[in-house]
Design brief:
The chain is mainly alpha-helical and 123 residues long. The chain is built from 6 helices and no strands.
């Protein structure tokens, strides 16, 4: 029988997140495949921002962390990670961290779009 220790609570939270992940992967197989094999898709930063938002709503924080660091090759994602880390302390609430990361992804996407539009105008 559990004596209510922090370890028990952490295990229960982890198990709950695992159950949410199983349900999410069942309902979102295409996204799950993109998460597991990002090199096989033409990922873009807008998709990443939307994916992080959906994962956050499902409280799949471990998967968000995985998504962050397996997609640093996408232009702007590495910048968004660095900027978010520089803006926030690790003891910031998860909502703040994810919100800042999403905002930074959106800023990077907007910058990329502006550069593409400028290049198009010049050509």
């Amino acid at each position: 029988m559990s004596n209510g220790t922090v370890t028990d609570h952490t295990m229960e939270s982890s198990e709950q997140e695992f159950r949410r992940l199983i349900a999410w992967t069942r309902d979102n197989p295409g996204d799950w495949h993109r998460i597991c094999d990002p090199d096989s898709y033409d990922q873009d930063i807008g998709y990443m921002a939307e994916l992080v938002e959906r994962l956050y709503k499902e409280k799949l924080f471990t998967v968000i962390y995985f998504v962050f660091y397996t997609n640093t090759y996408i232009i702007g994602v590495d910048w968004a990670i660095t900027r978010t880390v520089n803006e926030c302390f690790l003891d910031s609430p998860v909502q703040t961290l994810v919100g800042r990361f999403r905002r930074n992804l959106e800023l990077a996407a907007r910058d990329k779009l502006q550069k593409q539009q400028e290049e198009h105008r010049l050509n």
